[in-house]
Amino acid sequence: MSLAVDGLISGLDTTSLINSLMTLEAGPQNLLKAKVTSTNTLMTALQGLNSSIASLATLANKSVTVDSLNLYAAKSTSSTVTTSASTSATSGSLDLVVTQLAQAQSGVTAAMTVASTVDYTLVASDGTKTSITSASTSLDDVVSAINTADAGITATKIASGTDGAGVTQYRLQLVAGETGVAGAFALHAGTSAMVTDGTSTNLLTAPGAAVIRTAQDASVTLWKGTAAEQAITSSTNTFADLLPGVAVTVSAVSADPVTVSVSRDDAAVSTIAKTLVDSLNSLFALISTKSAVVNSTDSTGKAVVSGGVFSGDSTVRDVKQLILNAASYPVGGRSPSEIGINITKTGTIEFDADKFAAAMKSDPEFVKSVLSEISSRVAAAATSASDKYDGMITGKITGQESLVKSLGTQIDNWDLRLTSRRASLERTYASLEVQLSNMNAQSAWLTAQVDGLNASNGK
């Protein structure tokens, strides 16, 4: 509790005096608070750096094996035939004619107002029977029962005019969930037993019903017009592995042969290398920016030199050197510069696309082995730095977190100490005022006594 003692006797501004003294007393605590601020700034910067290094590790890991760099591009001579190649693809070409596309079976029932039964049986192309029971003969209930049976078809109620009496009629549209012959179906009005003994009715072949589209596989013909002519079918419009590692998707029937060709995609490998180099340089630029010394002036015009948040940080410096070494050291006694990956005098990595392309053309296996090894070393170095359990930067962040916690405890202790010191000063100045009051009272008494003696002596 603060004591109001401002100059009651002495006339001193004791509050200002105490505040000035407390400012001096709080000097060590202010230093601790400044240390917390700077530590938090460093910790935030380290967390950002750690995220960047972790991203670099993820990127590098994508090309740590030579197989991951076996990239091929597939193309066709028609826009209606599209291709995609995986890492298992090999160079080659193939001529094909698209004879038909895959389609899903669909059909409509005869027009009706209500269903004739609540029992239905779906018969799949392989003869499998699925029993379906609706809640009533209401067409809405029949549609709901079919759709919730998860039997591979979808039913929709479609308005279909009126009958002679003016009553609204509906058809049920039935569509297979999958394309291809394997998705063909029949929907019978009746139980499974009725289907077996032939007393049920196939709703898609009954009078007034119609099959709108038959189930059909996609088909292509290879080497058409030759002795090796061969038809290949697919339940979908995509044919997997017509060529090793190549998927072909068709979208229209063709009269003339379409050529599908596959070749090594050197440009894609070059993109991987360039992306890795760009990521390395972005990381090095981040570290350099936050380590730079900045010259400025303060409010009085005095020159001030301040270092970046990473200035003098040995852990960050070690991490940068570790990753730089991983990216620039020789591979099998040969320099990465042979494939266009060079270290510059400023400590960055340079990528020469033309030199890389030339190396890929002359010795692609060597290029891929070097890029794979560099990626592997960079991934290992980046993981060593950013691992969430024992990474170098992670450990540094953990240490800074502990330091902030310790500083916080010290600051709290200083709060108690300063509160106690302020109270002590207030008591001291209050006591001073009391003493001055007592002294003033004694002085007044003595003065009165002296005046009395002088008066009695006639002076």
From TrEMBL:
Endpoints of the signal sequence: none
Pfam families: FliD_C, FliD_N
GO biological process: bacterial-type flagellum-dependent cell motility; cell adhesion
GO CC annotations on file: bacterial-type flagellum filament cap; bacterial-type flagellum hook; extracellular region
Domain annotation Flagellar hook-associated protein 2 C-terminal: ranges: 215-441
Principal subcellular localization: secreted
InterPro entries in the record: FliD, FliD_C, FliD_N
Domain Flagellar hook-associated protein 2 N-terminal span(s) in chain numbering: 10-105
Top-level taxon of the source organism: Bacteria
Subcellular location(s) of the protein: Secreted; Bacterial flagellum
Keywords associated with the record: Bacterial flagellum, Coiled coil, Secreted
Subunit-level organization: Homopentamer.
Family from the record: Belongs to the FliD family.
Stated role: Required for morphogenesis and for the elongation of the flagellar filament by facilitating polymerization of the flagellin monomers at the tip of growing filament. Forms a capping structure, which prevents flagellin subunits (transported through the central channel of the flagellum) from leaking out without polymerization at the distal end.
Annotated protein name in UniProt: Flagellar hook-associated protein 2
Species of the source: Cryobacterium glaciale
